[in-house]
Amino acid sequence: MTSRGRTEAAPEKDAASDRAETSRPARLRTGPGDDNATGAASGGRKRWKDGIVQTWLVAGRDIDQQLHSRSFLITTLLLLLATVAGVVIAAVLTRPATGSDTTTVVAVAAELPSGTGLADDFTLIEAASANEAVADVRDGEADAAVIPDAAGGGLTIVARTTAPSGLVNALTTTPTVELLEPDTTGTPMTAAFTALGFGAVFMIVIQVCGAGVAQNTVIEKQTRIVEILLAAMPARVLIAGKILGSAVVALLQALLLALVLLGGMAIAGMTASLAAWAPAILWFVVLLITGFVLITSLYAALAALVSRVEEVSSATTPVTMLVMVAYLAPYIVILLGDEGATTLLGYLPVFSTIVMPTLISSGTATSGEAALAWLICLVATVGGILVAARVYRYSLLRTGKKVSFFRALSGSE
Questions:
Q1: Which residue, 307, 308, 320, 301, is CA-closest to 214?
Q2: pLDDT tops 90 at residue 370
Q3: Which residue, 128, 233, 260, 380, could crosslink 237 as a Cys pair with Cβ 3.0–4.6 Å?
Q4: What is the radius of gyration, based on Cα positions, of the chain?
Q5: φ, ψ of residue 165 in degrees (nearest 5)
Q6: In the predicted model, what is the mean pLDDT of the chain?
Q7: What is the 3-state secondary structure (H, E, C) of 341-403?
Q8: How far, in Å, are 117, 166, 217, 220 from residue 308 at the CA level?
Q9: How far apart are CA 313 and CA 393, in angstroms?
Q10: Structurally, what CATH architecture does the domain formed by 105-179 represent?
Q11: For strand 105-109 and strand 123-127, is the pairing parallel, antiparallel, or unpaired?
C-alpha cells in the first residue's frame, strides 16, 4: 500500500513541478545560431586587428629598407642642396638695390620731416598732402610716393605695381609697402619654371620611393618569398603595407624639403615671397602624397604581372609615361599661356599635384579650388587602390609568362 501511495503521488509532484516552472520568469537562452553570430563578430574583429598589425609590420619593414638605402639618402641630400641653392639665388636676385637712382621720381608728402635723406639719390616731387602724393603715382607723374604711416611713427611707400627696391633700401626705417595695382599673375615664364620645379620634386620622389615598390614586388615573387608572406597574411594586407610604407617615406621627404624651403625663405628675409609660397608648398605636399599613393599602387599592380626583374621596366611603362607626361605637360601648357588647358590640368588627378600649387603661388587659384582638386584626386586614388589590389591579388602567385592586366582584373583563371 505504501508503494502504491508513492506511485500515485509521483504524478502530482511532477504536475506541481511543471506549474512552478511555468510560473518562473523565462530565462534568456542562447542557441547554436546565437553562438555562431557571436563567434563571427569576434572573428571579424580579430581579423581586422590582425590585418592592421600585419599592415604596419610590412610598412615598417619597407620604411626601414628605404630609409637605409643609399639611393634614398643621396637623392634626399641632393634635393636639400638644390633647395638651399635655390633660396640663396632667389635671395640674391631679389635683394634691394643700393645707391642713387635719379631716374626714379618720388612724390614726398609735405607732412614728412625734411630729413628723409632722399633728395641726393632720387628725383623728388613735393606734394601738398599724402592724398596728392598718391594721386601723382596713380596719374603716372611719380614712380612711388612716400607718405606717413597711418598708424603714425613710420613710413609707407605707395607704388603702382612694384615698389622700387632702391627706395625701400634707402629709408632708415623699414617701410610699409602699398601697391595700387598689384601684379598677382606673374609672367608665364615664371609660372612655367615654378611648375617645372614642383614637377621635378614630384618625379624624383615617385622614382625613388614609388618605383622601388615595383622592384621589390618582382624580387619577392621571383625568389618565392611572396609565397611565405601570403601564407601569413592576405594579399590586400601585403600591398597595403607596401603602399603605406612608401607613402610615409615620401611624406617625410616632402616635409623635410618644405621645412628647409620655408625656413630658408624666412631666414633670408623673403617675407613677401614667403606669404605667397607657404600655401602653395603646403598644398603641394598634400597633393603629392595623394597622387603618390595612386601611382605607387599602380606600380605594384603592374609589377605583379611579371615574374622576372628584367621585365619590370616594360611592365610599368604606362605608369612611367604617365609620370613623365605629368612632369612636362604643365610646363608646356603654362608656357604657352593656354588658360583653359591649365585650369583643366589643375583638377586632373596626378597633374593637379604640379599645376594647382603653381596656380596658388601665382595668385590665380584659391585654397577652395585646391581642396576641390584634392577631393577629385582622392576619389581617383581610392578607385586606383581597389583596382590595383584586385590585380595584385590574382597575379601575385602566377609565374611564367606575363599575366594579362584585364585577365587579372577579371579574376579569371
A1: 301
A2: yes
A3: 233
A4: 35
A5: -65, -35
A6: 78
A7: HHHHHHHCCCCHHHHHHHHHHCCCCCHHHHHHHHHHHHHHHHHHHHHHHHHHHHHCCCCCCCC
A8: 76, 64, 10, 10
A9: 20
A10: 3-Layer(aba) Sandwich (3.40)
A11: parallel
pLDDT at 6 over 50: no
How far is it, in rounded angstroms, from Cα 32 to Cα 75?
61
Give the 3-state secondary structure of residue 284.
helix
Of 304, 301, 302, 303, which Cα lies nearest the Cα of 396? 304
What are the angstrom distances between the C-alpha of 346 and each of 266, 319, 357?
28, 19, 9
Cell numbers describing residue 396: 601575385
Q: Which three cell numbers stand for residue 319?
A: 605608369
Reading the block at residue 283, the C-alpha cell is 598644398
Contacts of 324 (CB under 8 A, 6+ apart): 203
Which residue in the block uniquely carries the three cell numbers 603602399?
243
How far apart CA 127 and CA 143 sit, in angstroms, is: 14
**CA distances from residue 77 to 72, 82, 84, 253, 257 in whole angstroms, order as listed:** 9, 9, 11, 10, 10
With CA atoms as reference, report the closest residue to 293 among 236, 234, 250.
250
Q: How far is CA 79 from CA 31, 204, 246, 251, in A?
A: 65, 9, 18, 14
pLDDT in tens, 8-44: 444 444 544 444 444 444 443 444 444 454 555 566 6
